[in-house]
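The aim of this short unit is practical: by the end, you should be able to scan a pair of folded records and say something sensible about each. We start with the first protein, listed as its amino acid sequence and then its structure tokens.
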Amino acid sequence: MSGCWQIGSKNNIIGYYELGDGAQKISLKIDPDGTYSEIVTLRGAVADRHSGKWRWATSFVDFDSLWIPKEFAPDYILRADAAAASGEPKYTERGHWSLGAESMVGNVVLVVFPDEGVNFKLIRRPKN
């Protein structure tokens, strides 16, 4: 057993997530009504606030317009962005993301860059 499996229900991904910590973090709130809100903090200051829509797609969460800044991207993503032609979308710009929803040793994560272990981690569920 690996201790990792895909989340099978959209109800299991509702909650508050973080990627990073301290001065460099993305806070993500996923609401049951199909909306989300994102707060990006860079160098200790809020750099962006955004809200949008999400939908469940069997073990994946599709976000209409999420931002994963370069500060959270591994080197291979930064190289791909640098090599992109003018006008092509870049991984580190706001855009559509489809993130795998997994349970890793009992912790719910949304996988951003799986090869590097860059994930949003569920930090708490909403109070009922």
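Turning to the second protein, read its sequence before its tokens, just as you did above.
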Amino acid sequence: MYERLKPLFFRLNPEQAHDLILGLMRLAGYLSPVRKILRSIYSWEDSREILFAGLRFPNPVGLAAGFDKDGTAWRGLSCLGFGHIELGTVTPLPQSGNPKPRIFRFPEQEGIINRMGFPGKGASFLLNKIPPRGSSPERDRFILGVNIGRNKNTSNQAAREDYLACLRFFYHRADYISINVSSPNTIGLRDLQGKEFLNDLLGNLVAERDRLVVGKDNRLPLFVKLSPDLSDQELDDALDAVTTSSADGVIATNTTVQRENLLGFDPGLTGGLSGKPLKDLSTDLIRKIQHRTGGKLPIIGVGGINSAEDAREKMVAGADLVQIYSGLIFQGPGLVKELIKGL
């Protein structure tokens, strides 16, 4: 079905197509018969339950942050069989993001460049879209994470307060928090991966998490989302900050500003590249993280997964779980079941 609809979606500009699909998933989430149909088509019951950072994931395949920024469509999306869904990136205050157009497809190479800049309705809006665990079967069917960032107008010197505010907002609703310090689309954000900034940020976030854990059965896992463009020294500094702070793991990787694997693009086209051209770059970083930490740091692998073989490469390199986004656009929702069965 998706192969028939894909040409229609691709006639729209990428952001219009995304908004249309998100709207359909949002509608499906509120129609019980549609949810049942979607689950019957796309879900695959995996007998394995994966213990990762203290959480029990029903399967190893998740939806990466960026698809459902405001948490409006997770009910419908969960019917596609994901073991976890990561909402956001969310910022404390609403913001419009960068000027349009800000998403560009490269269908022949199955790549996407985006320069969204964290558009969204803010933390209060997203909080109201996430019911507490135990409130419904839909909520308890999978793991729900929240990816947090700083507002565009917040300086890096003041960024700590934005991240702390988001942690406090979602501590009692999310199953885990992902800390986005690696998007190339907010000016200066990647500087937060530097040793001084990241040590300070993670130290404060972990301390606040441990303060909030009082009265809660399990502490909320904190993952750091890293850039694929880190040098070896920058990676060592980031991993040192992660392990020293006792953060729970990393997500590898965010999008790249490199263009070596993308042909026919406008050199003036800024933004983060995802999809198949990112695949090897992200896998290489996963392999480096695995080697440098002796396999002791939990890793979620993301970047260019379009097949079960791509997912296996990530897991052989050291990932415990995988996430998809661009692959969903190019391959369709059946990719989720294909990955779960193939793994």
